[in-house]
Structures are given as structure tokens and as C-alpha cells.
Amino acid sequence: MNICALNEWLHVCRLDRDEVVTLLKIADRLRALRHTVDLSAGHAPPIPASEAWEIATLALEAFLPQLAGTIRKASEETPRFLEAGRQGQEPGRPFTHHGDATTSPFVSCDYRGRPVDMLDVAHELAHVTQIAASRGAPMPPVQREVCAFLGEAALIRWAAMHRPTLVRALKSAWHASDTIYLIRDADLLSRALHAESPSYDYRWNYPVARLMASAFLRDACQNDRTALFCAGPAAPAILARFPVLPFPVALPPLPAAAGGPGDAYRHAGAIALLDMQADQGGGGDSLGKRHADLLNCMKTRSVFITLNDDGEPAGYATWDPVAAEPVQSGVRCRAFPGAEDVLTSSLRLHLPEVALRADRHERTTEPEAAANV
Q1: How far apart are CA 40 and CA 171, in angstroms?
Q2: Which helix or strand (DSSP H or E) is residue 318 part of?
Q3: Exposed/middle/buried for 264, CB within 10 Å: 0-12, 13-18, 19+?
Q4: Of 3, 190, 198, 212, which is the most buried if we count CB atoms within 10 A?
Q5: Are the C-beta atoms of residues 346 and 306 closer than 8 Å to each other?
């Protein structure tokens, strides 16, 4: 697919200039959040290239079970070069040569056994799978990169179930890559939008695709995933059904337990973000009262934040440590939309007495609420 200029890129990818500007604003907000992410990789022993390729295959098969045969065939038949470059050299960029009607795709990765290299392998295998599933029909580059990022996400999901020792390192590598895709590449695209006649740069695709992939992962079902990989030129229409939210979906991962003042600030920030994500805005309370209530709960250690599988805040509960009667339970719960059950089950597991107070309060106030409907 030969693209020469910005307007041509927008047309091919079915993007509107204003839409891209909005996406870059979201990337800019995520940039601030990423500064709070712990990027320490933890311990992960080097994985041989052949094993990394097989793990990526298994992960993609689990993510796209309806395409398992296509994935396995592509995995076994695709020529690939997965070896480290010369010692002391900067790692080369991985790529997939898409081939044509008479040649197969070819994958190359400067593979050195690191978690980021494993993500690269999953990224390139997803490219090969998309080409095979689309039967060679060309997919626009932004949507093609969405499929590749889904391959990386599939690897992390699979590792969480089958290779837990790898998960932290893979997630850290994913977040570290965000500093490239959502900062450096986003800046590159932003400059192009304001330039007079910018020449096409393939890296324009990455920030848009990264955000689209996150939105798609949030809401898409298994059939949607399969349809996207098979869509070829129709991919933009599928992704249009999964808009990127104007406020970032991913909240900054938190440590498992609070430490010093820095962690206290991060917990308070996570609660504020969850309030905004849930569109609660403090339930009509003044900002001063919300701040005072939260500070009091933190002082009395009556705050609970639950995390999702990615270590991101999914919901929180605060409560009055001295209230005894159900109607005075003082338990206040807020969850990221769709994560209400995660908060409830986590609260019951870790703080059953607080969960019981919340349940009693809900049953006590239910008839009154019904009467007011």
C-alpha cells in the first residue's frame, strides 16, 4: 500500500483529521499517567527464540480460537529470522515483509531473549496471522497495527494463566513501549498534522493503533476479534464500533500495598480518577468535603482499592470505621464501569465485615429506593 502524504494516509485509514487530533489529546493525558507507572521489569529468565515463537502461537490461538488452524499453519510455515544482531549494536527494528500473491510473508526480529523481544515476536506473528486470515486482501496500516498490538495483549493474557513468572516483565515491557508509541510517535504525528506538506512516516500509525487496540480490547467479543483479523480493507468499519473514550481507560497501576507519601498520593489520585471514570463526580459533594472525607478515611485506614489483572485500579470502597447500624454503614463504593463485580468479590474476600455492612445497607435502603422510582 503506497502512501505518500498525510491526507492520503487519513483517507486510506478512514480517519478524520479532527479525530486524530482528539486521539493525540488522549495520548497526551496518558503520557502524564505513564510517569507514575513502575517500569521495573522484575526477574524473567531469557526465553529461547523458538520457545517465544511457540508461546506467541499458543497465546494467539487462545485469543482467536476460531482461527486456530490458520494461526498454527502460519506459525509453522512462515519463514523467520529470530536472532540477535552483533554484540554492542542497537537492536534492529522487527518487521514483517508482507510478500505478494506468489511469496509468503517473512518475519525478522533482533531477538535477544528479553520480554520486549517476546512482545515483538507476538506482534509480528499477529501480522502474519492477519494477512493469512484476510486472504491477502490489504488492510489499512493503522488497523493492521491494531491487530499486531492485539497479538501482544494476547501474549500477556496467556502468560497470566500459564506462565505467571513472565507476566510482570511482559507488562513492564508493554508500558515501557508506551513511552515510544504514545510520546515519541505521537509527537511525530502531531508535528505532521501541523506541517505544510509532510511526507508519510509509518510511525504515524502506532499512537492511533495503540489507543484503538485498547478500546477494542475493552469491549470486543470473540466474534469481533475474529472478524477484525479477517476483515482486510473492511477493518476500519469494524473498529469504528469501538470508539476510544475521551478520557483514558487505563488507570495507572498501583503497588499491592501502600508505602510512603508517594503511594498515598497515588491512591488518592486513583480514587479521583475512578470517580471521574464512573461519572460520579463526588455524588454532588463539594470538592472540599470530598477531600476532607477521603483524607479522614486514609488516616483511619478505612480505604480499600481493588486492582484488575493488569494492576490497574478497578474500584474502591471507603467507610466510617465507627458506624454500626446498617443505615449508618457509611460504606461508599465506586467501580470502573463494568468492574462492579470485581470490586464486590474482592471486598468480600479481603474485608468481609465491610462487605457485609455494604450488603446490609443496600438491603435496608432498597424498599425506600423502589418507592421513590
Answers
A1: 10
A2: strand 313-318
A3: middle
A4: 212
A5: yes
Which single residue is written with the C-alpha cell 502468560? 159
How far apart, in whole angstroms, are the C-alpha atoms of residue 82 and residue 47? 12
How confident is the model at residue 18, as a pLDDT?
92
Look at 30-44, 62-76, 182-196, 216-230 and tell me which has the smallest mean pLDDT: 30-44
Does the pTM surpass 0.85? The reply is no
Site of grid cell 479532527: 18
Helices 68-77 and 115-133 sit at what angle, rounded to 10 degrees? Answer: 110
pLDDT tens profile 295-349: 888 878 888 888 776 667 788 888 877 654 434 456 888 887 667 777 888 888 8
C-alpha cell at 71: 494461526
Take residue 296 and report the three cell numbers written for it: 479522614
Please tell me what DSSP assigns to residue 120.
H
Q: Mean pLDDT, to the nearest integer, of 264-290?
A: 67
Cα–Cα dist 149/215, whole Å: 12
Question: Residue 369 has what pLDDT?
Answer: 34
pLDDT in tens, 44-70: 678 899 999 999 999 999 999 999 999
Q: Give bridge partners of residue 96 from the DSSP assignment.
A: 107
Alpha-carbon distance of 68 to 53, in angstroms, equals: 15
30: cell is 496518558
At 302, give phi and psi (nearest 5°): -115, 50
Q: How many CB atoms lie within 10 A of CB 65?
A: 13
All cell numbers assigned to 218: 475493552
- Whether 218 and 336 have beta carbons less than 8 Å apart is answered as no
Dump pLDDT digits (tens) for 31-46.
654 544 444 445 567 8
DSSP-assigned states of every residue in 185-201: HHHHHHHHHHSSSPBP-
